[in-house]
């Protein structure tokens, strides 16, 4: 059981990106839009940080990238999960859920 | 890094690198901004507002851009390294597989390279020790120096690093350029007591020794200046680590115990660190203060001229360290001044000395390794030569390996063409071929180290007559670096040529051609390599021939005595106090016993030993102003049996008899060349010579002896003989003549004589042949080494020639078939092929002969009585090479002549 990552924002952003990419390759813009829309714009994510996270995860081998054509026929960099990325998503999700449940439990006490 | 020269960039093919990472980041971000602004504009914003909003959402654009680029650069770098390693691993696997499929080829290359590298590594080990590696632990080797003195006598300057204690003190007191200065010399006294007594190397040095080296005692302490005060000093010794381990089992109680060294008893005060050997090349067992050593040495006790104040003894060398910032020139000037002061003082004591303006004393700070100085040993000279020889062997080995690799590359042309056709890049292919040759080279390098390890000891023994401070080839980083570096260079050199050749090959023609067809011009390179091999073989074999003849000449030279049948018996009294009567009687008893021992033909007492010791005193003869100006005359004082024992012929007159006793009229026997020099055109017999002073009675010359060689093999000495009874009856040793090879009798005779020795005194017995061995070693070594390397080169060249000719023959089977079909006889075909072999070898032989003739003037000083252009040697070598060439082409030629035309023509 890995230790719970206390760097909440960093860990969360990585987790969101991994989750976003489970439905197939997307470019950075699509990842950003999808997160914004899915969270009803409640999570304010600086897009610069998002791209940094994407590149860092690519470097760590969680993602791989490929240049492809976007919906409007433009050259775009598509990211997709690697096997390591999927594994990471599974463990992180478990950890995060447990973490959130624990925090929630504390906050629930009267 | 702005792409200001896109053309250049493309040309250098670096656009995949840094620039592309940044461009990709820009592309990605531009896409993001375009998409965001477009979306915002669809939602009703103006382009300006949209751009502002997009930038706000993004945050720090410039910072992010740089961060992204740096992350990507790291990633790309890592990926590329991984790619390289995996390609390398693949190449390795491929190379290993390829070599395992052709073990014969791999073995041939590995052994060839192993021999080449091994020979070089072994030579490097020796030369490194003699010429390059500073003594272990030495502080600031570049400032450390061995001090040389130059004195001019009779017009020629005599450079020496040997001096005495008083001159050393003069240097110390009158120079300011040095921050440390110490005498240093190594003796071979008997160490230990009883049966364990053995003669070992022991160094004596001043206390500054411990300041010139970065050493701390392992246990105990080093000696200090107050323990090295003449006349007697303190009898203390610091033992070497190795001696501590072997003789004291590394026990700490060694410190404080007493040990017999020479004729003194010494207290062990400390242990020097492992591998510390001072300035000595021979491994020493201990270090002691100069005064303690001299005080324990009975020989140096002379009440009138004590060792520390006389200018007439030379036995030590002086090492010093320049102060930081003092240049060599300044130190030299400083030393020369001091040496002049010193010489003036010596003239004050002995006004008969040659005046200073004639002698012109000077001194300089020479290299700390004696063999790099002006008086390099013959060993060092020969070793340096052999380095050249070993390098040539390596070159030949490389040529051979290149040839083998080329042949292999040619055989693999189709395979390689297929791979190129399948899209393997030529770069990758090149890397693959290089990997293979590097792998071979590395294995060859390790083999070479093994050869150096197991053959190096034998080599050092042959070359230096002892295993000097041997280091293991497997643990010496300098040697390992050298051998592997050499192997890698060899691998690159030999691998590059075939690899480039293959890379250039034309795919379609290679694929179309049959298996055995090749472009004939490619063998030109192989022929070139063969020419080079033949050239080098000739040079080496000529060297072998010259040294062999030198060795034969040196062994056949008339020494003036029968070295092979003689033993020298030396007495060592170990400080036993005896008077001269007892000394004389002891020697007389030893002589009588020696003459009765089995296997002994005769024995005689004598004072000096050829190549070991000389004795010169002043001579005076009526009618000649100064005899000593005519040259160096060395003396031997001997008992009556001397001439028959030595085998030295008396040409005229007589030798000594028992009648030439202490009180009989004084007599003398002179050597032939001395007689001619002093009394040209006169009969020397009957002449008068006064020995030591012009006031003593005449020694009448009664005989003329043949000349002897006793200082150098190449010239005889002007030598004369006095009856021992009339000169110094109480000193000297014994020559024993055996009735067979003397070296076989050493132990027997030592035991026979030892019984007569009183107390802890003892005798040492050395065969004259072993005394001469170091003197003729350089020729022996030269002969052995050149012969071994030359034969190796010849075999390599023969194999190379054979493989090329055989290859060419297979290539030309078709043509041969046609020739035979058209009526060529077997003899015609054979001649054709053999002529081809000769066409390669003859230019090589010619070139080699020219080089050998040209290089002759450098070897000449190392030869003995042989011209470096010796015709028999040249002719023999040339004929040998030609014969080998014919033989190597003969086998493939026979095969070619037996080609069945119908089969050869049907093959395609």
Give a description of the structure.
The complex is a heterodimer of chains A (110) and B (908). By secondary structure, chain A is an alpha+beta fold. Helix content of chain A is 57%, strand content 15%. A three-stranded antiparallel β-sheet of chain A has the order 1-3-2. In chain A, helix 1 packs across helix 3 and helix 1 crosses helix 4 (83-108). Residues 1-7 of chain A have low confidence and may be disordered. Chain B has 26 helices and 25 strands. Residues 1-16 and 515-521 of chain B have low confidence and may be disordered.
For this entry, give a set of tags.
heterodimer; A: 110 residues; alpha+beta; three-stranded antiparallel β-sheet; 4 helices; 15% strand; B: 908 residues; twelve-stranded mixed β-sheet; seven-stranded mixed β-sheet; 26 helices; 53% helix; disordered N terminus
Total beta strands of chain A: 3
Radius of gyration of chain A, Cα only, in angstroms? 15 Å
Helical fraction of chain A:
55-70%
Give the mean pLDDT of chain A.
84
Number of strands of chain B: 25
What's the rounded overall pLDDT mean of chain B? 84
The general outline of chain B is globular
Across the major sheet of chain A, the strand order is 1-3-2
What is the chains' assembly state?
Answer: heterodimer
The low-confidence parts of chain A are 1-7
